[in-house]
Design goal:
Layout (H helix, E strand, L loop, with lengths): L2 H10 L19 E5 L9 E6 L3 E5 L4 E2 L10 H5 L6 E6 L5 H8 L6 H4 L3 E6 L7 H15 L4 E3 L8 H13 L4 E6 L7 E9 L3 E12 L8 E7 L5 E4 L5 H5 L7 E6 L12 E5 L3
Parallel strand pairs: 1-9, 6-7
Antiparallel strand pairs: 2-8, 3-4, 3-5, 5-6, 8-9, 10-11, 10-13, 11-12, 13-14
Length: 282
């Protein structure tokens, strides 16, 4: 049995909390990750796009993978339309359809009817030379020649000032979108979290690992009251808001990484007014 298959079966079975043997553990994709945009960011020098509410997907030229490195069970016809070079983007269904999207991409056996509604929104060419503006143009060319409707180049736009940026953001929010992404037009390709890539949203978000389930009280007696989380920097805190009834009845497993929203940080590095957003897949 291959490492990819063992890893995927563990993932689908909800066993992510248990450590995998070293030979079976997936290798995280070496991707560029965004940081929060500073207040009053000036968009000049950046290309701006919508921040899609999707599932991050890395195409390594042969297989489609989650950010964790786990393989995505996509239909053969879907991957056959992709070029034999590395791409980075989001599998996306529509604004406000994240849960349906996750259900589709997590299936061990993909359903054609679900995948025909999905789009691979490509926004980066991992490892490619040149500045981002040149890579964005190359992505547009690739999508035109290989798309077949499934592969779509994310639209990039240069904005002249903060007023135009605010107007663009409000338009996305009014339409049910998440926010914007700003990428330095002259930036060479890098990996890891970098200020060359900024995310602009009404609320900041971040990720942390689930370390404990805290029992509920009152109306939440017998189900989840809060998650105890630990950030990558080792800061531990609890989140008790933002959960649906279904999530309180079946909370994210220990060891899972979740996304939460917040309104800044305390001096100790604890997020202010943190609220659960979603499980990070994968």
């Amino acid at each position: 049995m291959t490492a990819d298959l063992v890893s995927r079966r563990c993932f689908l079975a909800g066993l992510c909390a248990a450590p995998l043997p070293a030979w079976a553990a997936p290798q995280p994709a070496p991707l560029l990750l965004a940081v929060d945009a500073p207040p009053e960011i000036d968009p000049r020098g950046y290309l701006v796009s919508e921040k899609y509410d999707g599932v991050r997907a890395w195409w390594d030229g042969q297989a489609l993978r989650f950010r964790s490195g786990l393989p995505i069970a996509a239909p053969d016809w879907f991957v056959a339309a992709l070029p034999r070079q590395s791409l980075d983007g989001e599998l996306w269904l529509a604004r406000g359809r994240f849960e349906a999207l996750v259900a589709a991409v997590r299936r061990h056996t993909p359903r054609d009817d679900e995948w025909r509604a999905l789009r691979y929104m490509v926004f980066e060419l991992p490892g490619a030379a040149g500045g981002f503006a040149a890579r964005a143009e190359r992505i547009r060319q690739i999508a035109e020649s290989h798309g077949g409707g499934a592969c779509v180049a994310v639209q990039q736009q240069a904005l002249p000032d903060r007023a135009a940026l605010a107007q663009r953001l409000q338009g996305v929010l009014d339409g049910g979108g998440e926010g914007l992404v700003l990428h330095r037009a002259d930036a060479a390709y890098v990996t890891g979290r970098s200020s060359v890539l900024l995310k602009l949203k009404p609320l900041a978000d971040a990720e942390a690992e689930v370390t404990a389930h805290l029992p509920g009280r009152g109306k939440h007696q017998g189900r989840l009251g809060a998650l105890r989380l630990r950030t990558a920097q080792g800061v531990v805190f609890d989140i008790g808001t933002g959960f649906s009834d279904a999530q309180r009845a079946s909370p994210p497993p220990l060891g899972a990484w979740v996304t939460y929203t917040h309104r800044g940080w305390t001096a100790a590095g604890v997020p202010r007014f943190a609220s659960f957003s979603r499980v990070r897949w994968a």
